[in-house]
């Protein structure tokens, strides 16, 4: 099958027939080193008119196709088709592009125009929409978990979350983050420190309010680099670590594991830094991510009601 890849997405979208047999191919997201040699050409009047009736995804396919097309609006080689696939984030080998070219060239004249290519690509784009909706559902469905079951979370789940975290964008590849998994012994020390700091704190109704930290099965302390002489760089690094934490939590959520990003006065103390092995001359704690299976199930955790909708936060300028 042919797979269409979008940033962070992969899926199977079509089957190519050749010589009365089905040949299956699996396409993965392209590597950063994929060579793309683009030949610039202006769009014809006909293609501009066509673009008015196309979706934005299809218009992009037209734009890319026209970069490789001849004056007759055709491409005449599977090498050009290969470059088009790469430019549209569909990775294939040259041999696979050869097969697709012959499949799409129904009249066997050795040339493909956009009308030959569009139906195949349209099917791919339509299938990609389903994956996009699934991914977006994951994003909007994530919620903060307040109560966790005791079952520990395996290191493999944590490592996948960190792998996703460090894929976050960061300034000039500064990679300012560090992740520290905390075990039961250190968690107990955190809890003691928390009690000592909060023992005089009270809630509005006058009762003591201290969450039992030892009931949280998973802890990951996250730090960012500090730049005492460059406040702008330090702020940019903090933004990057915040993106990394979001990726971490989404990865956990995708595997059925709930999270909560915590902060507070305890985490700002030197005692806390010492327990974590954090050198405060070069880094600081951004927060702790609690993680574990949600008590009662993550899907039934109460989401915080959003006060604003898209129309309240999105504006358009001419």
Automatic annotation (TrEMBL):
Pfam families: EF-hand_8, Nitroreductase. PROSITE patterns: EF_HAND_1 (PS00018), EF_HAND_2 (PS50222). This is Nitroreductase. Residues 92-127 form the EF-hand domain. Residues 1-17 form the signal peptide. Gene3D superfamilies: EF-hand (1.10.238.10), NADH Oxidase (3.40.109.10). One of its GO terms (molecular function) is calcium ion binding. It comes from the Eukaryota. The keyword Signal applies. Keywords: Calcium, Signal. InterPro entries: EF-hand-dom_pair, EF_Hand_1_Ca_BS, EF_hand_dom, NAD(P)H_nitroreductase, Nitroreductase, Nitroreductase-like.
């Amino acid at each position: 099958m042919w797979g269409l890849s979008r940033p962070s997405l992969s899926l199977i979208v079509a089957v190519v027939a050749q010589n009365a047999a089905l040949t299956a191919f699996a396409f993965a997201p392209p590597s950063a080193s994929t060579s793309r040699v683009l030949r610039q050409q202006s769009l014809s009047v006909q293609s501009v008119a066509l673009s008015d009736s196309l979706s934005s995804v299809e218009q992009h396919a037209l734009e890319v196709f026209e970069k490789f097309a001849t004056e007759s609006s055709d491409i005449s080689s599977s090498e050009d088709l290969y470059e088009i696939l790469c430019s549209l984030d569909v990775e294939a080998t040259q041999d696979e592009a050869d097969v697709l070219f012959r499949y799409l060239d129904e009249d066997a004249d050795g040339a493909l125009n956009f009308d030959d290519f569009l139906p195949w690509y349209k099917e791919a784009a339509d299938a990609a929409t389903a994956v996009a909706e699934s991914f977006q559902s994951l994003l909007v469905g994530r919620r903060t978990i307040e109560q966790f079951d005791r079952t520990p979370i395996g290191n493999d789940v944590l490592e996948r979350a960190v792998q996703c975290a460090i894929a976050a964008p960061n300034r000039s590849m500064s990679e300012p983050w560090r992740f520290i998994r905390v075990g039961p012994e250190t968690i107990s020390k955190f809890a003691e420190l928390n009690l000592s700091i909060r023992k005089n704190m009270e809630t509005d109704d006058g009762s003591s309010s201290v969450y039992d930290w030892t009931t949280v099965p998973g802890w990951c302390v996250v730090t960012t680099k500090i730049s005492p002489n460059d406040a702008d760089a330090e702020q940019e690094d903090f933004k990057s670590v915040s993106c990394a934490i979001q990726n971490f939590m989404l990865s956990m959520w995708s595997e059925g594991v709930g999270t909560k990003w915590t902060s507070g006065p305890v985490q700002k103390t030197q005692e806390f830094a010492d327990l974590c092995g954090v050198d405060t001359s070069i880094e600081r704690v951004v927060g702790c991510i609690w993680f574990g299976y949600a008590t009662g199930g993550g899907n039934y955790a109460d989401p915080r009601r959003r006060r604003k909708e898209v129309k309240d936060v999105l504006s358009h300028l001419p």
